[in-house]
Amino acid sequence: MALEHGDLSRLLETAIVAARLAGQHAMEQMNFVKATVKNGLELVTQADAECQQIIIDIIKEAYPDHGFIAEEGNQGKIYKQLPRGDEAIWWVIDPIDGTNNFAHKMLFFTVSIAVMYQGEPIVGAIFEPATDSMFAAVKGEEAQLNGRRITASDDIMDKFSSVGLDSHLTDDGMPKWLCEIMRRTRFRNIGSTALQYAYVAKGSLIGTIASCPKLWDIAAGVVIAEAAGAIVSDWQGKKIFPIELDKYESEPFHTIMASKKVHAEIIELMK
Fold this sequence. Notes:
By secondary structure, the chain is α+β, with helices and mostly antiparallel strands. It has helices spanning 5-29, 46-62, 99-103, 176-184, 193-201, 215-227, 263-269, and strands at residues 35-38, 42-45, 67-70, 79-81, 89-97, 110-117, 120-128, 133-138, 143-145, 148-150, 163-165, 207-210, 230-233, 255-259. It has an eight-stranded mixed sheet with strand order 4-3-5-6-7-8-9-10, sandwiched between helices. It is globular, with a radius of gyration of 17 Å.
């Protein structure tokens, strides 16, 4: 089955509506959240599950036979529903990316929704509720922020540019490449992988490096950033997609997303 332009546009419209409604709900709940520890590793709030259900309900109204991979399942596991019928289309959902920020009433969080087909992200929407910013793209077309085109940065890596870094990039000390990036740039950690991907897409960051994001953290951002002219790879410079979605069980990725001007330079630094 080949997806036409109209199909992709309708998928994106559904993602945008779902992301906005979930983000609005998250903002309403922010001052009342109670966080618990999930799997001994990360925080989760009741708003995560509520926002995820809002998203899934909206999508199922339009696409009842599509599959789902989402962060919040039962007993700390992922939510996964295989697609039915002939259309092997998956929705990949992070209802609140940046839950640690959200749980501490910091506004740097997003709702991230992607559509994947044949193992590749093809539609992405990332909504930043605090600023009412909707990043969106369809594979092969331009990336947009609130309906206006955005492009990745053309800046070089220097003391005026910023690279997004993960909270826990390594488990065994500070590697030389990390120290070098921190020395040469105004490095940033926003606390939301999806938001840092979106900021690469709009040119605010020249790149971002993550050591353990899950599929729902990166899928939408990959579509948007690549549409904006950025390059996405693993730490060795190899492609991340396609992947087998029916076998995916929350395995982490090592990712680099950067503008075309600095991607190769970051790869070289990390060797």
